[in-house]
Amino acid sequence: MKLFELLQSQITELTDIEPEDITLDTLLDDIHLVSLDFVSIQVALKREMGIQLNFDKFQRDNTTTIGDFVNYVSELAK
């Protein structure tokens, strides 16, 4: 599963947002995820892709869109 598709799937499961409404340009603030949602995403990334995500660093890096988040996680995967 590709990273964007995994994130899109997780966000769809955690919110009432339809998959087609989640794009790389979607603002994270518009999704209204809470801390437990981020934990669910973190677990899915670890389970599906072996990527350990540090949300404290992620938040400090001022990531604002799904595309920014995908780029951030992609860098961690290298």
From TrEMBL:
Origin superkingdom: Bacteria
Record SUPFAM superfamilies: ACP-like (SSF47336)
Residue ranges constituting the Carrier domain according to the UniProt record: 1-77
Gene3D superfamilies associated with the record: ACP-like (1.10.1200.10)
Descriptive protein name: Carrier domain-containing protein
Organism annotation: Photorhabdus akhurstii
